[in-house]
Amino acid sequence: MPQVLTTNALILCPHAGKGTTLPNHRKWQINNGYVAVEGDQGTLACPFVPLPCGGYQLKSMGLNATQIDGQKVILVTDFNLTQTGLPLVMADFHQTFDNSTPAPIPEGQPAPAATPEMADFDSPTVAPVFQTMPFSITTPVPVVFTFTMTAKHPLQWVLTLINEPLKRSVDLRNGLPGATVVPSGGQWTTPSLTVTVTLTPVFMTALTVGNHHLYLTSVSKRGLSGHAEALLAVSA
Fold first, then answer.
1. Which of 10, 141, 167, 203 is most buried, taking the most CB atoms under 10 A from its CB?
2. Closest Cα partner for 14 from 138, 145, 160?
3. How many H-runs (helices) and E-runs (strands) does the chain carry?
4. Consecutive 10-residue runs of the chain (236 residues): their mean pLDDT?
5. How many other CB atoms are there within 10 angstroms of residue 149's CB atom?
6. What is the pTM of this model?
7. Does residue 183 sit in helix, strand or coil?
8. Are 81 and 88 in contact (CB under 8 A)?
């Protein structure tokens, strides 16, 4: 079983900004750190000046039955996002002892093994890890990016556009006028999936001059994630 998340955990955004979780329930401590539950919020010391990640609100994937006052306890493998839609990396450091079983078992019988999905601790991969594409407003042409994701037990993917000049983030999983995403929606059911993003000149021009970041994050059923970035450099 993965560790539960505590306020001692190391939480980072993709820009290496450290997170601080503010616990709502102060009843359970591990190594003097309060155990985090669903709904707990946190702040991020994000150094990304144009649009800092700001903070996060923790959500449970429902992989753990433990609760505090009716609130689900967060695991370090529960997939969570920053306020701008980018993935959090979370790690805790306390020792764990797992005597739980997936279901009641007859006395003297061995506990059933974990399902393949829950026993999978390999993070998904996304390729290429980084790609860049220049775009000139004076000589406009469509911009196309492709991302290929692989995982043994895939669950979902998230596509986020960070607009530096306008200081905002946009969820692109379902595309937008001028931005086509194939396939769309964020569902992921095959071990390997390629997502193609096509941006028209009209869409790129509306982003305004400056740098724009396209993040694709892939998530497994265990809650582990991997991500890749594309840089869109718009010039006059």
1. 203
2. 160
3. 1, 18
4. 89 97 91 95 96 96 90 95 96 75 71 84 96 96 97 98 96 98 98 98 96 97 96 97
5. 24
6. 0.88
7. coil
8. yes
- The dihedrals phi and psi of 143, each to the nearest 5 degrees, come to -115, 130
pLDDT value for 232: 97
Task: Identify the pLDDT of residue 30.
Answer: 92
The whole-number pLDDT of residue 133 equals 95
Own/partner pairs, 127-133, CB within 8 angstroms, 24+ separation: 127/228, 128/228, 129/228, 129/229, 130/228, 130/229, 130/230, 130/231, 131/228, 131/229, 131/230, 131/231, 132/230, 132/231, 132/232, 132/233, 133/230, 133/231, 133/232, 133/233
- Omega within 30 of 0 (cis) for the link into 128: yes
Under DSSP, the state recorded for 65 is -
Q: How many residues are listed for the chain in this entry?
A: 236
Contact 27, 19 (CB under 8 A): no
Q: Which residue has the tokens 């694709």?
A: 216
Helix, strand, or coil (residue 25)? coil
